[in-house]
Amino acid sequence: MEIPLAFYQSLRLEDNKSRSQDSSYSSPNIFSFPRFSGYDFSLRRRRWKNPFAKITCSSLVHGLKPKPKLKPEPIREILDQGSKDPVLDDTQISKSAVAICSQIEKLVLCNRIREAFELFEVLEIQGSVPVGIRTYDALVEACIRLKSIRCVKRVHGYMLSNGFKPEQFMMNRILMMHVKCGMIIDARRLFDDMPERNLFSYNSIISGFVNFGNYLEAFQLFKMMWEELSDSETHTFAVMLRASAGLGSIEVGKQLHVCALKLGVVDNTFVSCGLIDMYSKCGDVEDARCVFDDMPEKTTVAWNNIIAGYALHGYSEEALCLLYDMRDSGTSLDQFTLSILIRISTRLAKVDLTKQAHARLIRSGFESEIVANTALVDFYSKWGRVDTARYVFDKLPRKNIISWNALMGGYANHGRGADAVNLFEKMLAARVAPNHVTFLAVLSACAYSGLSERGWEIFLSMSEVHGIKPRAMHYACMIEILGRDGLLDEAIAFIRRAPLKPTVNMWAALLNACRMHGNLELGRVVAEKLYGMEPEKLGNYVVMYNVYNSMGKTAEAAGVLDTLESKGLRMMPACTWVEVGDQTHSFLSGDKCDSYNEAVKRQIYHKVDELMKEISEYGYSVAEEKNLLSDVDVNEEQGVVRYHSEKLAIAYGLVNTPEWNPLQITQNHRICKECHKVVEFISLITGREIVVRDASRFHHFKEGKCSCEGYW
Prior knowledge:
Elements: H1 5-9, H2 16-19, H3 23-26, H4 58-61, H5 74-84, H6 90-109, H7 113-126, H8 133-146, H9 149-161, H10 168-180, H11 184-193, H12 199-211, H13 215-229, H14 234-247, H15 250-263, H16 269-281, H17 285-294, H18 300-312, H19 316-328, H20 335-348, H21 351-363, H22 370-382, H23 386-395, H24 401-413, H25 417-429, H26 436-449, H27 452-464, H28 472-484, H29 488-497, H30 504-517, H31 520-533, H32 538-550, H33 554-567, E1 575-580, E2 583-588, H34 598-617, H35 638-642, H36 645-656, E3 663-667, H37 673-686, E4 690-693, E5 698-702, E6 705-706
Parallel strand pairs: 3-4
Antiparallel strand pairs: 1-2, 1-3, 4-5, 5-6
Helix pairs in contact: 6-7, 6-8, 8-9, 8-10, 10-11, 10-12, 11-12, 12-13, 12-14, 13-14, 14-15, 14-16, 15-16, 16-17, 16-18, 17-18, 18-19, 18-20, 19-20, 20-21, 20-22, 22-23, 22-24, 23-24, 24-25, 24-26, 25-26, 26-27, 26-28, 27-28, 28-29, 28-30, 29-30, 30-31, 30-32, 31-32, 32-33, 34-36, 34-37
């Protein structure tokens, strides 16, 4: 007899006693390991028959079936029991309710929230079933985790219908459930009806109102708590300091600071961090620094708050020094620290510093963190590296609306309208709801790239499809689209038909179109509108000066200069920056480069002269310079025009950067028409990609062409 191998694996020790009585299992030969008949282990010969051909499953031989696994289907089982026993006595109902309550508690403990509510539905169907406080507490916890208003109403309604009278602990839990699920009005009603309130009750309702931005109501509740309990705790002070920052009221914040000092809780980490945040957001950076310096132990949150406060008010260099101090102190840098560093780098235009922050993000395992990486997308978009921004964006596993808007705005500023529109369509396909910033970015992209038809489709879809009312900035984009196409009369009619009062941006877009198309009469009318709306804004005079200057109307241009002088307005000199290594070098128009030694000065001016000579051989005419002055520096001689700040910065960059890297410069003014033409020729003869960020947008010069296509 041949015994299957699986039979021995199925034997259990507890079965030996019963099986020893069976004669078929009592033979000693049964338990001897069988010899495989199909295989001979002789060294002289081998017969390659399959030795396992006759091995079969013991379960199949004995007609056994696997033991069925128990499936957690309590609802179906209970309903099935109900169908078998249609009439249940009180004892059976009680046992069933106890089983359901126990199962609900276990499911919530295992975070199987939806299954717990399916079981709770059985209790609702049975009605008036006694439920213990532990089960109610589990249901409250389930509502908080699920954040479902419907579930909150079901659970609270069941409590009321069952006549449940909670004690203070349970009342506080019910109050917190309403607050956490966003039912702040119902929570306030519950709070007012509470027979007894403690610190936990007040903290829950105050935190709810602060989180919802109702800071005044939070202060009224805080005053009520102080009058009723004459006590507070550190959490309450931290929340109220956040409310003071939200209101922007430094006086109220100082009163809270005094209260914290009297109660002796000012050294608490949460209170100290709240004070730093409050003083920073209210504009008092010095007091924020005093609180920070007095902290016995400085945490990462404290460092982040004080650095963010300096950066918020424009003290970027000081914020950067604090970041270095934080690093040297041994405090760990988290993703929020790195996001602050990236924003500081954005303001200071420090590309190398941002690259270091990017590398630190990856090393620290934060490459999927949305806040810091969105800041990276914003930086790379604003500083000429939009392809790198797209790479970071694509790596994000989860994207919010800020991430989409940052990249879309980057495409718009770089003149890549088609890419911006494609990204917009991809966002809609991902079912991310656009906001007014999204439409501003995509409409600006259409305006910069001349995508008129697509721009009008998107503009009309704002209200018709997405229910977003267009704002003045969206109308300004459409005016720019009309102006780019030369439809100046239609642009005037569009402004008059707009359901809002024309703004400065709308008139400025039309004035720029008049400048580009040489419509001097309409430009004069629009300029007068701008003068009346913003008589002290320098940019309006600059654009009008360029209108007259480009048309050769020197008398009118001189009149603009006289007006500037009479108003006491002074144009800042044109300045251009170029980053070489970790150093930023600045140049002014007609700069004598006195900050450099004689060899470097000669090298810069020699390079400019060499470039001007080479581009003249490629068809550039020097005669184009005669009536074109810089956008901001007007007191220039002809020789100064030859050495505009853009040309000096480009010459220095070409000499001191590797030729395979794109050259990027930044300006505090719009690039003039003459320099724009020169840079086009320089990109052609040198083969270098040159990126110019002027006061309005990016210009990507490559192989003699610019991304703006001559309209800026």
